[in-house]
Design goal:
Length: 274
């Protein structure tokens, strides 16, 4: 599943590919829904509009035009790519956007957990999928040690489940939760409410640094993920604990432990993390 760094990598790739601001000439949809129904006015609202940029909020992407934005989510296996000629028929390609520069933007999603929708610029925070989202992890004003520590008080969930809750902070998926907790030297099972102010500070900084480095490396490229240009990310080579169960900790050589926490595989070093 693409996580925030992969989605940001896709955003940067798309923005570069669309920097000539092409006009959307024609859209073909091969189905009426992905995870949810595609709005009936999807095609008519976007055709004739020129693309002005590509933004991201959490793991949602906005392909902007002056009047309306195409909102998308990659779900488990979604991807955007650009073709220079009409692609061969593939049942997993669901949306073809023909651009004025003769290129075709294609949305593909074999498992169909993705989303295609519309949103008016400026109304993103009112959209049903976006309105409950917490702060962006790289926004130092809205996501910081004070607000994070305050929010964790009296919470009886594990810190790993707490940081993966999109109301706490967006975009900390399963890989980066384990990696950030390792960097912050905090055990994933520790109750969120027991976090000290200093641990909260370490964890906020760890979340920010792990996501920033992953974005710089182009995402983690686990399984189906490919960025918009078709290149794979390289961050998995830098994982300290994720998918390293039984292997020696890179800091202290103790075997990395793994356990399912909150329904997801979780990895930690029993010596480095307390
Ligand atoms: Zn260790």
């Amino acid at each position: 599943m693409p996580e925030l760094p992969e989605v940001e990598t896709v955003r940067r790739g798309l923005e570069e590919l669309l920097e000539n601001h092409p006009t959307i000439e024609q859209i073909q949809l091969t189905r009426k829904d992905i995870r949810f129904p595609i709005p009936k006015n999807f095609v008519s609202a976007l055709e004739g509009q020129s693309i002005t940029g590509v933004r991201r909020r959490a793991k949602y992407l906005f392909i902007d035009t002056p009047k309306v934005s195409l909102l998308s989510h990659l779900g488990m296996t979604g991807s955007w790519r650009i073709e220079t000629k009409t692609p061969a028929h593939d049942k997993h390609d669901h949306c073809f956007i023909e651009l004025s520069d003769r290129r075709i933007l294609v949305f593909r999603d074999p498992r169909r957990f993705g989303v295609l929708d519309l949103v008016k610029p400026g109304e993103e925070s009112k959209h049903k999928l976006l309105k409950a989202l917490g702060p962006e992890p790289l926004d130092e004003t809205k996501f910081n040690a004070d607000s994070f520590h305050e929010r964790s008080r009296k919470r009886k969930v594990s810190i790993k489940v707490f940081i993966m809750d999109q109301k706490t902070v967006v975009g900390v998926g399963n890989i980066y939760a384990s990696e950030a907790l390792f960097r912050a030297k905090i055990r994933p099972q520790k109750l969120a409410g027991k976090l000290s102010r200093h641990e909260a500070l370490r964890l906020v900084e760890a979340i920010r640094s792990v996501l920033t480095e992953a974005i710089e490396a182009g995402g983690s490229s686990i399984r189906d993920y490919k960025n918009a240009g078709g290149e794979s990310g390289a961050f998995q080579d830098a994982h300290q604990v994720y998918e390293r169960g039984g292997e020696p900790c890179r800091v202290c050589a103790t075997p990395i432990r793994s356990k399912v926490i909150g329904g997801r595989s979780t990895y930690w070093c029993p010596k480095c993390q307390t």
